[in-house]
Write a structure and sequence with these properties.
By secondary structure, the chain is α/β, with parallel strands linked by helices. It is built from 6 helices and 8 strands. It has 2 domains: about 5-125 and about 160-175, Rossmann fold (3-Layer(aba) Sandwich), CATH 3.40.50; about 130-160, no CATH class. Strands 1, 2, 3, 4, 5 and 6 form a 6-stranded mixed sheet that branches.
Amino acid sequence: MARIAVIYGSRYGQTQKVSGRIADLARARGHEVIVIELQHPPQALSLAGMDAAFVGAPVYYGRHHKDVTRFVTDHRADLERIPSAFFSVSGSAASENAEKQIEARQCVDTFLQQTGWHPSSLAMFGGAMANSQYSWIFRMMIQFVARKSGMNIDPKRDYEYTDWVAVEHFATSFLDRLPPREPHAGARISEERHVPSA
């Protein structure tokens, strides 16, 4: 079976949740999975010895998580040496508004242009509205954007927009295409992190 890295950045926890689901799906197939949260990475962060990688990033204010952008930029050559998949998590990706969907795709295109990365697989997933975790100002901003998109929300409730069937399809389709594992000298990613995101 393959050694797979699931690497992500998260601020309010939804990208962490998606990453965890992908890791569980890979483990259920017998793969060895290393989960790395980029706000608390291991000291020797390398993809040496990995057979494949998933990378996930949420979108805030029209940009992907800075830690993920930095990681992909720094490790682009290693990511392109192995099968690699990128998933973006945003509110726009969940919108039924065509303009918002275009915005979500443009945000992904900008990320890929900035990093120079060409992942083997790509997906956009709706995120969540964690009103209970937001500051008052950010909550008001989110509500304003939601209303402009035609969404009627209760500021006292949390909402989840992730299509978990789509997440499973994305992960399993990628895993199905992995080539048989070749022997490696060993990996330098030695720690698994499950750190709750702020």
